[in-house]
């Protein structure tokens, strides 16, 4: 049976409520996600930002049901795609969602490309497998997609093997592949972190172009608030498996409420001093300390041990993600101090 309604008929493409994921490890049970709530709407670019280990990839794996069964201790809540809860869908139905409704662009293009086949053949195969197109129609579509990715000589790239292409070109090819079945949502997992800085900007701008021209929603995963600022409309700041701040990007950059968000924003390099003074004159800000051990989470706020503002209550009271009424938009923060100060 075909997956019922097209996501494009819904304004909310992805709705996650109270998602909690625990995994089994040799050391014990890890709470990798807890109380995760967010939505991605039609035509929106949403970002999830956080340090390494904060749970960004686990969120993607939970959405796409890519967690190995033997690893899962708990996987509960609701992950609705076009109103259907993927948590209860079987593997056949999930395959209809993956690739067709939601496609994934990984950090390293080589994980998505087979080194032994020309890239054109790989794009054509996906189109033929997932749509009713013939091989020649699929080739036409593949060439058109490559051209739309800003590739000047699509025929040459179509005939190339992955190792003959630069990192930036490979990532453009993978992004073209992700669009092969006209998905409603692309999930891009750190899609630029393996690229040179100038190529990173070009690839980010390509996502913006795709969003504007195709109307495809994008969920981008990053550790870099600079990426968020450049392309996203909405952001969830993630720390130790929880969303600690959520809302419109403009609101959060202008009024970061959570001390962790404030710290992440300080980590964005100021391009002016890089170009004017040289990279060695001003060290980049680093957040001191480490993420808590997910086997022994603190009783109170998970960021409390690294927070320069933490008070006694922060170590004992579990903060909830609460909408801040003073903002018109849905700006939510998980911090007891924010609650007190307004
Ligand atoms: N297979 C696994 N076995 C044990 N622990 C795991 C496994 N996969 C993830 N984790 C742990 O789950 C937590 C969340 O990991 P996750 O990969 O989602 O973080 P991330 O924010 O995506 O980090 P990165 O940016 O480094 O990819 C981390 O503490 C990580 O060590």
UniProtKB/TrEMBL annotation:
CDD domains given in the database record: ABC_NikE_OppD_transporters
Localisation per UniProt entry: Cell membrane
Entry protein name: Peptide ABC transporter ATP-binding protein
Annotated signal peptide: none
PANTHER family xrefs: DIPEPTIDE TRANSPORT ATP-BINDING PROTEIN DPPD (PTHR43297:SF2), OLIGOPEPTIDE TRANSPORT ATP-BINDING PROTEIN APPD (PTHR43297)
GO cellular component: plasma membrane
Keyword Transport among record annotations: yes
InterPro entries (alphabetical): AAA+_ATPase, ABC_Ni/Peptide_Import, ABC_transporter-like_ATP-bd, Oligopep_ABC_C, P-loop_NTPase
Domain ABC transporter: 14-265
Entry similarity comment: Belongs to the ABC transporter superfamily.
Membrane-spanning ranges: none
Cross-referenced SUPFAM superfamilies: P-loop containing nucleoside triphosphate hydrolases
Protein's GO biological process: peptide transport
Keyword flag Disulfide bond: no
Pfam families for this protein: ABC_tran, oligo_HPY
GO MF, one annotated term: ATP hydrolysis activity
Membrane topology value: Peripheral membrane protein
Keyword field: ATP-binding, Cell membrane, Membrane, Nucleotide-binding, Transport
């Amino acid at each position: 049976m075909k997956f019922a309604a097209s996501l494009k008929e819904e304004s909310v493409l992805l709705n996650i409520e109270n998602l909690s994921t625990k995994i089994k490890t040799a050391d014990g049970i890890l709470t990798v996600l807890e109380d995760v709530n967010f939505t991605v709407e039609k035509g929106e670019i949403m970002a999830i930002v956080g340090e390494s280990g904060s749970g960004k990839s686990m969120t993607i794996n939970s959405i796409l049901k890519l967690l190995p069964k033997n690893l899962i201790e708990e996987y509960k809540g609701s992950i609705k795609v076009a109103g259907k809860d993927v948590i209860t869908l079987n593997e056949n139905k999930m395959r209809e969602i993956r690739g067709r409704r939601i496609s994934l662009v990984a950090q390293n293009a080589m994980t998505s490309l087979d080194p032994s086949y020309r890239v054109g053949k790989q794009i054509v195969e996906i189109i033929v497998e997932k749509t009713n197109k013939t091989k020649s129609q699929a080739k036409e579509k593949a060439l058109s997609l490559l051209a739309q990715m800003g590739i000047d000589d699509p025929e040459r790239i179509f005939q190339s093997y992955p190792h003959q292409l630069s990192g930036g070109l490979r990532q453009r090819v993978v992004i073209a592949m992700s669009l092969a079945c006209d998905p409603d949502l692309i999930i891009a997992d750190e899609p630029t972190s393996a690229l040179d800085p100038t190529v990173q900007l070009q690839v980010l701008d390509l996502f913006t172009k795709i969003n504007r021209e195709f109307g495809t929603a994008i969920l981008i995963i990053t550790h870099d608030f600079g990426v968020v600022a450049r392309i996203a409309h909405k952001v969830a700041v993630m720390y130790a498996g929880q969303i600690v701040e959520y809302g419109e990007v403009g609101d959060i950059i202008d009024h970061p409420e959570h001390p962790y968000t404030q710290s992440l924003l300080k980590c964005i390099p100021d391009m002016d001093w890089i170009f004017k003074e040289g990279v060695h004159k001003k060290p980049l800000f680093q957040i001191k300390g480490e993420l808590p051990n997910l086997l022994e989470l603190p009783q109170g706020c998970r960021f409390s041990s690294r927070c320069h503002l933490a008070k006694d209550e922060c170590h004992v009271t579990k903060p909830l993600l609460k909408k801040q009424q003073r903002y018109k938009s849905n700006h939510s923060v998980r911090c007891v101090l924010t609650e007190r100060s307004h």
